[in-house]
Write a structure and sequence with these properties.
The protein is of the alpha/beta class. It is built from eleven helices and 18 strands. Strands 8-7-6-5-9-1-10-11-2-12 form a ten-stranded mixed β-sheet, sandwiched between helices. Strands 14-15-16-17 form a four-stranded antiparallel β-sheet, with helices on one face. Helix 5 packs parallel to helix 7.
């Protein structure tokens, strides 16, 4: 039976496992996220589909591993760059399309990063409305001492802010974008309520991706520099939206999900807590991320859930809650976690595959994770993540039976999605979308254009 909750998904950028108070941060203030956990379910073993953003966000949209949809890499790049002619194939079935088919109003506010050509913008994939940055906030004009100005301007044109499919501003002041995003969210929630429609709202703030920009109030209050200010800014956004939902009488029947697209860089004030590794790696710190869910009308309160789960599970789970049917003519990798949500516990998905580019680097089943490759070559490492989440004690030689069981899962994954490191071509991969003659959304820097910030002043990027 369809329950049709409103769904508010807040998907942060590069927020690590140790960056929130409820996950153990002693330096970042996140009282409203912490309260969300106290009033809902905190997931301890939740994974981003990739250790970098474009593959992760494409996977969330489609319920598929990035390799499945041709999003493992982009003409040799780890993420999509401005003006690339690649995006999600229009043959894929997306999360907003599923919810739209069930009568939901849909909107994305914030970062997209699944293709910046007109054919690949959010409004082509089931979002009624879009407002935000089409890619990362470090892909505009900012100080970069590692390259000549001419190269920087060629590769990183003025940062575009979009409404729908139209650039409405170039080089916006990033410190104020979180407030502008919340305003857009509030308008959408009110309009959906007035229309009597359930809504799906995906808020994807630029925080805490480098460069670190937040309103001055949060910078002044922070105990952890600009990074702590960015965490506080997102925490405020959650508080503002919850206040709006309560005022409209929508809070009880709204599923709120707070998560991150991949692990943190573990520098500039960021932390992955007890986990090994960081963004760009398939160690736990690169892909195990915060995830908190609260739905007062249906979910338990104050639960800690160890179910193995991932962003790719959102599509089948949210579709089930909304009463939307999924296509049967293609593989969708996500698992339906409805019972996990309603009970606040359970096993979750059976396994998780850790891909970096086209190479399967690790597989997890239950409590055990087997590593096969890293950037420096083959690995033979087995970890008990329940006892050793920091991946410090290699059990490969001690547990040959577990290794053999996981190798069966590895071979299945290789036959399905391939593995460049092992020289195997997968049989279940699909192609991304492509367009000829792509163009950047904004042209070259124009010294006569009235940019409010012509050149961002921080050199941090990626």
């Amino acid at each position: 039976m369809a329950l049709k909750p409103n769904i508010l998904l807040i998907n942060c950028d590069d927020m690590g496992y140790g960056d929130l108070g409820c996950y153990g941060s002693p330096v970042n203030r996140s009282p409203h996220v912490d309260a969300l956990a106290q009033n809902g379910v905190l997931f301890t073993d939740f994974y981003a589909p990739s250790p970098v953003c474009s593959p992760s966000r494409g996977a969330l949209m489609t319920g598929c591993y990035p390799n499945r949809i041709g999003f493992s890499s982009f003409e040799g790049k780890a993420v999509l760059m401005p003006g690339q002619g690649i995006g999600i194939s229009h043959g894929e079935y997306t999360l907003p399309q599923a919810l739209k088919s069930a009568g939901y109003a849909t909107m994305l506010v914030g970062k997209w990063h699944c293709g910046d050509q007109p054919e690949f913008l959010p409004t082509r994939y089931g979002y009624d409305r879009y407002y935000g940055l089409p890619y990362s906030n470090d892909m505009g004009r900012q100080r970069r001492t590692w390259a000549p100005v001419e190269q920087v301007d060629r590769d990183f044109p003025p940062l575009p802010l979009l409404e729908g499919e139209e650039v409405i501003q170039q080089q916006p002041d990033q410190r104020g974008l979180i407030e502008r995003y919340v305003e857009q969210c509030v308008r959408f929630i009110r309009e959906s309520a007035q229309a009597g429609k359930p809504f799906y709202l995906n808020l994807a703030p630029l925080q805490v991706h480098l460069p670190l920009y937040a309103p001055e109030r949060f910078v002044a209050e922070s105990q952890n520099g600009d990074f702590g200010a960015c965490v506080a800014a997102v925490d405020w956004a959650l508080a503002a939206l919850e206040a709006e939902l309560k005022q409209l009488g929508l809070h009880d029947n709204t599923l709120i999900v707070f998560t991150s697209d991949n692990g943190s860089r573990a520098d500039h004030g960021a932390s992955n807590g007890p986990l090994r590794g960081a963004k760009c790696s398939t160690w736990e710190g690169g892909q195990r991320v915060p995830c908190i869910m609260s739905w007062p009308a249906a979910m338990p309160k104050g639960k800690v859930c160890g179910a193995l789960s991932s962003h790719i599970d959102f599509l089948p789970t949210f579709a089930h809650l909304a009463g939307a049917a999924l296509p049967t003519d293609r593989i969708i990798d996500g698992a339906d976690l409805t019972e996990v949500l309603l009970r606040g516990g359970g096993e979750g998905r059976a396994e998780f595959r850790y891909y970096r580019f086209e190479t399967l680097e690790a597989v997890r089943r239950g409590r055990y994770k087997l590593h096969l490759f890293k950037e420096d070559g083959p690995r033979r490492e087995l970890y008990d993540l329940a006892a050793d989440p920091g991946e410090t004690t290699n059990l490969y030689a001690e547990k040959p039976g577990i290794v053999a069981e996981l190798m069966r899962a590895v071979n299945d994954a290789r036959q399905d999605l391939g593995c460049a490191g092992a020289g195997v071509t997968g049989q279940g991969n699909r192609q991304p979308g492509r367009v000829p003659h792509p163009k950047k959304l904004t042209g070259n820097f124009d010294p006569d254009h009235p940019y409010i910030i012509a050149l961002y002043d921080k050199e941090e990027d990626f």
